[in-house]
Amino acid sequence: MSRDAIWPVWKLALLLYVFAAGAVAINLFMLGLLGQSVGLPALSPHAVLALSGPLGVPAAWAAGRWARHLLDQAE
Q: Which UniProt keywords apply (predicted)?
């Protein structure tokens, strides 16, 4: 990773947080629906949104690292 990068990982992660948290929310909701087939209770949309906030942080960090890697490869 270049030291003088215009887009460091933390900036990319901050920009991608909304999309990463949204993807986590969709996946959690679908997992809750799938869990009903094995007898687990359904996750409410409010619970999914409450869980996707904190779980979106590592997902955004991973997306930021991936985007930084792609930018480094493009250079």
A: Membrane, Transmembrane, Transmembrane helix
